[in-house]
Write the structure tokens for this entry.
Amino acid sequence: MRDYITVSMLNAYVSRLLDQDELLQEFWLKGELSGYRFYKQSGHSYFSLKDKDSAVSCVMFKSRNQAVNFQPEDGMEVLLRGYVSVYARQGKYQVYVEEMLPYGTGSLFIYLEKLKAQLAGQGYFEATRKRLIPPIVNRIGVVTSQDGAALQDILRVIRQRHPGAQVILAHSSVQGSEAPKELAAGIRMLNEYGLVEVIIIARGGGSVEDLMAFNSEEVVQAVYASDIPVISGVGHEVDVTFCDLAADLRAATPTQAAQFAVPDYTSIKKHRDELGLRMARSMQRLLAARLESLDRCLMKKVWSQPQLLAKRQADLLLACQQRLGAAMLENLKTDHHRFTLTVQGLESRSPLNVLTRGYAIVAREGVVVKRIDEVSEGDRLQVEMIDGRLTVVIQGKEKIARWKN
Amino acid sequence: MEELDFESALERLEEIVEQLESGQLNLESSLAVFEEGVRLSLYCQKELARADGKVQRLLRKLNGEFELEDIEA
């Protein structure tokens, strides 16, 4: 009996061989779609990818299919990302597709237009939510590849314009299947870290396919959700990615992104110097004006001949005294006349006049008594006569009706 | 003064220059803001002369904490 193996063993062996090959675990494959079938029930799709001379079976499972943003059709050129493994039941190898993108300017353009409309519909590109980049920043977050030219461009500009600025790099691949996830994670990580004032997401120039990661919804969503303002500088002048559209500010290149991010300290220095000068000048002007006023005061005669000040006061005093004396004399004259008249008037009204005619004033304890009701028998009264005062005691009261009460 | 960041310092300096130039202040206030302006100006000069910018890579450690690693760039 010969040694043999079973079919399952063969397939398992081949399968292991393929699984061990790193190249086959992750690659991009370009070709034309053929025999495309999508099963609604399961959500999986099966098709072949072919070129002029070859074809290979492909399968794309439901979870991956959901991320496809366009309608695959036979004859369409596509770019697939996936890995190879053996389908043991049929003893054939096939490509397990993780991601499918339209390939070629025609179909890629259509794909991008659709994706753009979809992302725009979700509000990611709204101009109203764009934030201003702070005018002066000291810590800049950068999401790009540590090994890329973009980082060097950015660092050169930052060192030139603002040598004191800190750069915090969130390293990420900038193309390939992991790039969207890593770029998005970089933005989120810088947000969590929190100490940067602005984020630059950047990549140097490349083909449209190279820049695809910056068109992914994952990156667009992360840029949109960032609390820290984001400047996007991807590719060359002509490349506009969706990441650019979602960012708070779009720069044409990584270099320009850095220029937008940091202030030019040379011009700020000039501004500061100018402010210092203006400040000194206006202070000088102010002091000069005060000194001049002071000088003008000091020049006045009064400081050199202060006695002048006293003499004027003395003159003033003398004049006042003279006027006072004259006024007094005048007043006295008028007053004397008025006094005489008043005395004459007083004399005619004086109670003393009445007393000479035989009337008397009766008082009790200094209060004049006018009616008998005001006093009682036995009260002591004073009677004022023209030549003196009597003290009397009331011995009797009798009411008499006079002609007038 | 210590908590002041560069941007506010520069803004305040601009304000002071405008106040002084307006000539609205009396001598005493002028001297006071001038003194403040000189301090701000020196602070800005110092900040502008700084050239100690670093490039660091932000890494997340296994315990979730952040770590900054200086990189040659």
Notes: The interface with chain A takes residues 5-7, 10, 13-14, 16-17, 20-21, 23, 27, 30, 34, 37-38, 41, 44-45, 47-48, 50-58, 60, 66, 68, 71, 73 of chain B (CB under 8 Å). Strands of chain B lie at 55-60, 66-70. The first strand of chain B starts at residue 55 and ends at 60. The radius of gyration of chain B is 20 Å.
